[in-house]
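Morning run. Coffee first, then this:
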Amino acid sequence: MIPRAQTILLVVLVLGSLIMGGVLFRMRERAHQRMLAGQDSAPTQAPAVAAAEQATLLVANDDDNSLREQVYSLPLPRDPGARARAVLGKLLDLYAAKDSNHPITGGAASVEQVFLLPANDAASKSGARSETSPQIAVINLQASFVASHPAGLETETLTVLSICGTLHANLPRVKAVRFLVDGEVRPSLAGHADLTRTYLTSDAAPAEAVHP
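And here it is:
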């Protein structure tokens, strides 16, 4: 026979479990209702995207070692740094395509960051900047892009010049370009094109314009 004290304790435990279960059920229901209310009040309108604009890319062609202008309609952000990354992303996507005349794997993800800095150190220190003052672009590439890039002086030079020319075509203030790989200076792209130097965008001259 179960002692009276143990019987009372068992009853109390059972009642406590039932009460706790009811409380948890109510809390779950309230949380569910709050979640539904939050979904109902959430905006259904899609976030605004950048407006499409004409972008000029200097695309490398290994068949004749040339750079050709190609014009595309792209959603371009207003921020200059984001704009630079967008046009370079499109350029590298073209190189990653199956029918590319300058095949390089990686695509847009190969560009980690693009920094736009005053090209004139004196103006930078004094704060004397203007909307027309020249800039230098610092492009931070992923190591995987460099590791998979085809080796060869002409091929590597075309890649560098196409990047420089594309930046200048869409951001005319960019007069020079420096390259980093995973945030560090690398000696070369794939053994030939020097990545320790500063490249002038004026060195990239297109052979012709193409409008796809």
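The first strand starts at residue 52 and ends at 61. Good start to the day.
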